[in-house]
Specification:
This protein has about 400 residues and is an alpha/beta fold. The protein is built from 14 helices and five strands. A five-stranded parallel sheet has the order 2-3-4-1-5. The two termini are about 55 Å apart. The chain binds adenosine-5'-triphosphate and magnesium ion (MG). The site of magnesium ion (MG) has 4 residues, from helix 6.
């Protein structure tokens, strides 16, 4: 049984209990008092007399009493008694869901321009209820074996630190820098770390922090850190595309204003906190300022997936996108299963070296999309081959343009 159903069940029980408690005093039937006497006559005669008496006195009175009872139910008082539990039954779950959303909005509005915090944030108890209600699940990530081990160690460390801080020990969180190519799961990893320790998650992206000018971005940063400081669960501040914010000062010669942000950040980052940890993510670690780099106690590189990870990624996204019974017809799934055998998946994985997990996901989504635009609406060998070629070509073009760009460091 899902949690949502347990909640509805409890509400039904409470409502049912209240309902019967309130209704009990109303259900009163006046029993007609008719004197029925037996006069020692023969049984047949007595029975006949009894029937006559019942017909004449008791039945009409019972009829009137039941009519009165029924009509007595239809009045304002009873309407209220009936409608309140029914209304509560529908309103309570809705109110708890909407209330938590409102609560979150209120906090965000109060503490930070809501557009700055990315939509997958989580802050405070109300938001936890909202996540629970919407059956939120921590994202799933497929990583190379060695990266997976390092991530597990970091997750464990954060949890241990949080427990120790909660127990009153004087400790601080370590900041973490995630770096590696685009679409390898850095944003997902930040969320996974926050979820694993049940910490608030405050994700922002550097471009949106910077969009309103340097001075505003300093103000936003202060507000973001204040919000994290006020967290009762401990918070993960996640800064995506951090190289745009922490840019190496040698690259900012003509931009003294941006220099101010880097210095301000340096002061914010250099002191570790017992309330929050900072996770920053970048695809260009070489652009990050030298003074900022050491403020991150841990560096975790997320490389492109190796052959084993690529096989797992193909299998995972094929299952989720092509074999998905909710989204596809039986004919589509049967055809996809016949086509994408285990051997063929291994073969594809060999062909797509250099693709990121996000590229692989997109490639499989392309297979589905293309299939649905054909006459039979099922995947074919040709569609799969085309989607692979298209994904590989796209990645090669991207590599080519990236190699033309001068290295800023
Ligand atoms: N390692 C992974 N395992 C499974 N799915 C992944 C993985 N990496 C990325 N994805 C898929 O690609 C999407 C985009 O990934 P994500 O934004 O986390 O990558 P990123 O490294 O943060 O990229 P960027 O540097 O461009 O911000 C994810 O939402 C997920 O669907
Ligand atoms: Mg990202």
């Amino acid at each position: 049984m899902e949690k949502k159903h347990v909640l509805v069940f409890i509400i039904v029980l409470i409502t049912g209990y209240t309902f019967t408690e309130w209704w009990q005093p109303l259900i009163k039937i006046e029993v007609p008092k008719v004197p029925i006497t037996f006069s020692g006559k023969e049984l047949g005669q007595e029975t006949q007399e009894l029937v006559t008496k019942l017909q004449e006195n008791v039945f009409p009175q019972l009829k009137t009493a039941s009519e009165e009872f029924l009509f007595s139910l239809v009045n304002i008082d009873n309407a209220l008694r009936l409608s309140i539990p029914i209304a509560l039954f529908f309103i309570l779950p809705l109110a708890s869901y909407q209330g938590s959303r409102l609560g979150l909005h209120f906090l965000e509005k109060k503490l930070l321009n809501p557009q700055l915090i990315l939509p997958n944030s989580s802050y405070g108890r109300l938001d936890r209820i909202r996540r629970w209600w919407s059956q939120y699940k921590t994202p799933f990530v497929i990583l190379n074996e060695s990266v997976n081990k390092k991530l597990d160690a970091i997750k464990e460390k954060v949890k241990v630190i949080k427990t120790a801080i909660n127990a009153g020990k004087s400790l601080t969180y370590d900041n973490l820098l995630l770096h590696g190519p685009s679409g390898t799961g850095k944003s997902l990893i930040a969320q996974i770390i926050a979820d694993y320790s049940n910490m608030d998650f405050l994700p922002v992206s550097a471009p949106s922090l910077l969009q309103s000018g340097i001075l505003m971005s300093i103000k936003y940063l202060d507000q973001l850190f204040a919000m994290a400081q006020a967290s009762s669960y401990g918070a993960v501040i996640f800064i995506d595309q951090a190289d745009l914010l922490f840019t190496h000062r040698s690259l900012l010669k003509n931009d003294p204003e941006h220099n101010k942000v880097v210095s301000h950040l340096e002061s914010l980052l250099s002191k570790n906190s017992n309330k929050y940890m900072i996770i920053a993510s970048t695809t260009a670690i070489q652009r990050i300022d030298n003074a900022i780099l050491p403020t991150f106690n841990d560096h975790l590189e997320i490389p492109l997936p190796d052959i084993l990870s690529r096989i797992k990624l193909i299998a995972f996204y094929t299952q989720a996108i092509l074999f998905n019974q909710k989204e596809n017809t039986k004919l589509f799934i049967d055809q996809a299963r016949t086509l994408l055998s285990k051997e063929y998946m291994i073969d594809i994985a060999q062909q797509i070296e250099g693709l990121s997990p996000a590229d692989i996901k997109n490639m499989i989504m392309t297979i589905r999309k293309k299939s649905l635009t054909t006459h039979n609406e099922v995947p074919t060998q040709k569609i799969v081959s085309e989607a692979i070629a298209q994904a590989v070509e796209k990645r090669q073009t991207l590599h080519h343009y990236q190699s033309l760009r001068p290295d800023p460091a």
